[in-house]
């Protein structure tokens, strides 16, 4: 009985066989090569023929076939040595190597597999077995081709992601540098009054801001703000807030007004918050809101007033070390059109200190998953009540990190500390 075998049109192979680029047939028998080539052609596959291993190497270098059908026993170089040579020529290109042999012992087959052969085809060649071996090779090559394509896609996506990350890192760095530049003075003394600003972000950029500026020779304006969120959009809103209090374009500073006489005088803090609230509601399209305090200090009298927009109550630290929370409840900026802010007045006596701070101090998780809270702030600030300037902010942050056991911050920190030095403690203006 004649052996059945697949008969296919030579014009186009089935999908699985299309993974085969070229089949190289290596055999010192011309008749054997023609028989195998005839079957491959009938299945729509392209093939090359070589009568020796050396001829096969030349054809391989030129055409790069991805399936090799090679006789095991040949003069000069056998099939296993040819397999090893071809794999060394193209270590990055996988070739499927099928040995044609009359050998069939398990020991011989194991040895051939160890030397790099992928499969065997017994002589005399049965066409249905040849088709099965070639189809199995095609399936493997097809899967490998899909994996290579997927790897290229993954690498392309990775390069794109890396480029986006690099651009984001660049933007973050620019935003970070811009935020750092917003605090023109961290420490400054005006006669008997010390002003110290502290801002520490939980991430590369943040939403906290604190600052102060002179208005004429007798007044100091100050502010502290905490924008919801810690992302770039929150950071950009802090830039907008800082620009409201610009010292470069003082005529555009929202905290001052120019009279008809040309004289510049300070606006009341509640008016400042009202104006900022209307601008934010009208012009800012994000969901961000912010808490804030705006204030004014009269250097000649020590009279101080501030307005509060949802910000934590300031702490008044008295001369004898007593702490008092002062202020009144109010809505944050960016919530309501109808909110009305009010001024709070106090006399900052010699030896007293006013501490404005963001909720990163009181509400952030510090130790054992508990918040530091208002009461926890008192010993924190009591430990630094004798310090001023850079030493003050350095020790506050050092104490915070000690409480957190050096774990990263969970929220941005900001504070503005105004100290009325006791008589005899004043000195020349200093700034940093």
Helix content: 25-40%
- As residue ranges, the low-confidence spans are 1-5
Q: Termini, distance in Å?
A: 102 Å
* Alpha-beta classification: alpha+beta
Please provide the count of β strands.
20
CATH topology of the largest domain: Phosphatase 2c, domain 1
How many discrete domains?
Answer: 2
Biggest β-sheet: strands ordered side by side in the sheet: 6-7-20-17-14-15
The CATH architecture of the largest domain comes to: 4-Layer Sandwich
Task: Give the overall shape.
Answer: rod-shaped
- Quickly name the level 1 CATH class of the largest domain: Alpha Beta
Features:
alpha+beta, Phosphatase 2c, domain 1, 6-stranded antiparallel β-sheet, 10 helices, 20 strands, 24% strand, disordered N terminus
Structure description:
The chain is rod-shaped. 36% of the residues lie in helices and 24% in strands. Mean pLDDT is 85; it is low at 1-5. The protein has 432 residues and is α+β, with helices and mostly antiparallel strands. The termini are far apart. The protein folds into two domains: 15-150, Rossmann fold, CATH 3.40.50; 183-420, 4-Layer Sandwich (Phosphatase 2c, domain 1). Strand 1, helix 1 (30-42) and strand 2 (47-50) form a beta-alpha-beta unit. The chain has helices spanning 30-42, 53-63, 79-89, 106-114, 127-182, 232-244, 269-283, 359-362, 373-382, 389-403, and strands at residues 23-26, 47-50, 67-71, 96-101, 119-122, 187-190, 193-200, 208-215, 219-227, 256-258, 264-266, 290-298, 303-309, 315-317, 323-325, 343-347, 353-357, 365-367, 370-371, 413-420. Helix 5 packs parallel to helix 6 (232-244). It is built from ten helices and 20 strands. The strands form five sheets. Strands 6-7-20-17-14-15 form a six-stranded antiparallel β-sheet. A five-stranded parallel β-sheet has the order 2-1-3-4-5, sandwiched between helices.
